[in-house]
Amino acid sequence: MIDRGSFMATARLRFGVWRDEDMALAQAIWGDAEVTKLTGGPFTVEDVAERLAVEISNWRLHGIQYWPVFHLSDGRLAGCCGLRPRDMNARIAELGFQFCADAWGQGFATEASTAVIEWARTEGFSALIAGHHPDNLASKRALVRLGFSYTHDELYPPTGLLEPCYLLRLDAACRE
What we know:
By secondary structure, this protein is an alpha+beta fold. It is about 30% helix and about 30% strand. The protein has five helices and eight strands; from the N terminus they run E-E-H-H-H-E-E-E-H-E-H-E-E. The chain has helices at about 25-30, 35, 45-60, 110-120, 135-145, and strands spanning about 10, 15, 65-70, 75-85, 90-100, 125-130, 150-155, 160-170. The chain has an eight-stranded mixed beta sheet, with helices on both faces. The radius of gyration is 15 Å and the shape is globular. It starts with 7 loop residues before the first strand and ends in a 7-residue tail after the last strand.
């Protein structure tokens, strides 16, 4: 079991914060060809190191990241879920999640995302956006279950595809 403290928790998961020494954990997610096949992977060790550095930087600069998520039961890495800056002046962030293959199909994406959405609401975010690979119907179902509404298709450079994009308004003042 990894003792990392906890940024926040759900009934089955706890969120940590990425650290410089987390390359092995980052590699377990972003270096896994199965996990990243719909997000532009597989990624090289250099790509994963760059991604880890971006997450750490997002935390330092914006107080958000795609936080590492661990099983409460045994501390194993389950994946990551969190926010990335989209329009911080308007308090809009992008919700994302990636889970290790052994965590698929257990509702962890929805559970973790629900916690992140509530955290974003309490932190004063006005809206969240999210997208998914056109073939990833599980992610589509999760986003709809979470209350996101389809808005448009947008080019996702890592895959070169137009991906469906969604919006979740967190305050009444947010306008498209």
